[in-house]
Design a protein that fits this description.
329 residues; alpha+beta; D-Maltodextrin-Binding Protein, domain 2; 10 helices; 29% helix; 26% strand
Length: 329
């Protein structure tokens, strides 16, 4: 299935400004990679992203953020950002894969989404059960109402291969023990990741290079919406279901207007309109190179995607104006 085209709503001139946001966040985090301090790296990335967003010609509202007001100083849910201009909703993960960054392991990225107002699922900071595949398949190949085994078989049939040629990407968590066993029982392979399921879901769009055919399992709901925005641009299929297993979590969902606590959301329900997505590598990974520091420049590697046109740009940048990154701050 190709990417569903959406009305061209967002000003394309915002795209490179958005790239500057994720570049700044990635550089700020990369200064601290490998130092074992997740919190400092996360805080540095958030502060850098917020600083750049403040200069953008937008009237932005954070709908997927780094936390709630009072818990984090910037990019909290409901915060207004921007210098004034086009009205947009924002989904932000200034440092996805904080553990990966702290340990200098592959796959940490800075990712940001600008979307048409009201078009993003207002996901609370809870878990989400997810299934995702890339483009090129008939609609409805995979579903959260099907078992992992049935999803693997259906994808294999659609791809014209045996289940043994399918690789599923799964977060390496104790909660996924039964899922991993089920995938292997049907003959498929499992690729485990410790963190970074936004990048993990994006990997399904290019199985030839990533070796990943399907994403399965439970991860963060905000990250699910960010990943859905990327698939909205590139193409693919995804479903998500919020895990609202306590009264506190259900209260969070109610506050965001969610009434059906068992609903399965399709891709088009998680991201309903136009969006721009930028992702910049912090550490080296299969999706993006990490930030590289030279004597007189900094190099960044970014993917820029747009739903209205299905355009995906790979932007490798050499920055020589190092003052903008406030590296000595």
């Amino acid at each position: 299935m190709s990417a569903s085209r959406v009305p061209q709503q967002l000003d394309r001139r915002l795209a490179l400004d958005l790239v500057r946001v994720t570049e700044s966040a990635a550089v700020a985090a990369a200064v601290l990679r490998g130092r074992g301090d997740e919190q400092s790296a996360d805080e540095a990335a958030i502060a850098a992203a917020h600083r750049e967003l403040a200069h953008m010609a937008i009237s932005g509202r954070v709908v997927i953020g780094e936390g709630v007001e009072g818990e984090v100083p910037h990019l909290f849910i409901g915060q207004s950002v921007g210098a004034g201009g086009e009205t947009v909703d924002i989904a932000a993960d200034a440092l996805e894969g904080t553990t990966l960054c702290a340990k200098n392991m592959p796959g940490s990225i800075a990712v940001m989404v600008l979307a048409a107002p009201g078009s993003l699922l207002n996901a609370p900071p809870v878990y989400m059960d997810k299934v995702a595949i890339g483009p090129g398949y008939p609609a409805g190949v995979v579903s959260l109402t099907a078992s992992p085994e049935d999803n693997i078989r259906a994808l294999a049939q659609a791809k014209g291969v045996s289940p043994s040629e399918i690789t599923a990407l799964v977060l390496d968590r104790p909660r996924h023990a039964a899922l991993i066993a089920a995938v292997r029982a049907v003959g498929a392979s499992v690729k485990l990741i410790t963190d970074g399921d936004v990048a993990g879901i994006i990997h399904t769009t290019n199985p030839r290079d990533s070796g990943v055919d399907i994403y399965l399992g439970i991860g963060g709901a905000p990250e699910g919406v960010l990943a859905a925005a990327a698939l909205r641009c590139i193409g693919g299929q995804m479903q998500g279901r919020l895990i609202l297993d306590t009264e506190a979590k259900r209260s969070l969902a109610k506050a965001l207007g969610i009434r059906d606590f068992t609903k399965v959301y399709d891709l088009e329900e998680m991201v309903r309109g136009d969006c721009l997505v930028a992702a910049t590598g912090v550490t080296d990974g299969a999706l993006l190179h990490g930030v590289r520091f030279g004597r007189d420049m900094v190099e960044t590697d970014t993917l820029l995607m747009r739903a209205a046109t299905g355009t995906v740009r790979h932007i490798a940048t050499q920055h020589r104006d190092l003052d903008k990154f406030q590296l000595d701050a």
